[in-house]
Amino acid sequence: MIVTYLKAQPVPSVVPTTSYESTEGGGAGATASTPARDTPAGERAGVEGMLAKYACTACHAVDTKVIGPSFRDVAAKYRGQKGVEQKLAEKVRDGGSGVWGPIPMTPNPSLPDNDLHTIIEWILGLK
User: Fold this and answer.
1) Running DSSP on this structure, what letter comes out for residue 33?
2) What single-letter DSSP state applies at residue 32?
3) Does the CA dihedral 82-32-91-117 come out positive or negative?
């Protein structure tokens, strides 16, 4: 029944970055806010487009935990660590589990290097 219901729903033109968990200040269906950093609007739209294109937003949002951690939580956890870009690139490509809980991150081996670098740089720049 659930699958039939979901298939009957219209497909959104833009994948929202939302969390359906009850969070402080947000509540169900709270939309993630725009990142607090000095990024030109065009670059933000480009990265956010990549996040949707590669289905990152299916599990992650900027400010709230969805299935995986928020991008801000990732930035905070890894800020200042040596070799973090390579470490995160490997995590995105290979997937894995145990760092943020038992739910595994699916591997994304076909994500182009340039886009992967841009996404990781953007995430690590979040404040």
Assistant:
1) P
2) P
3) negative
Among 107, 44, 121, residue whose Cα is nearest residue 79: 121
Q: Which residue type, as a one-letter code, is found at position 54?
A: Y
Element (H, E) at 30: strand 30-31
Predicted TM-score (pTM) of this structure: 0.64
CATH number where 19 lies: 1.10.760.10
Nearby residues of 6 by Cβ (< 8 Å), 6 or more positions away: none
Contact 92, 120 (CB under 8 A): yes
- CA distance linking residue 23 with residue 52, whole number of Å: 22
Q: Which domain covers residue 80, as residue numbers?
A: 2-124
Our count of domains for the chain comes to 1
pLDDT tens track, the chain, 127 positions: 777 766 676 665 555 555 444 444 444 443 444 444 444 555 556 898 899 999 999 999 999 999 999 999 999 999 999 999 999 999 999 998 888 888 899 999 999 999 999 999 999 999 8
**Eight-class DSSP state of 23:** -
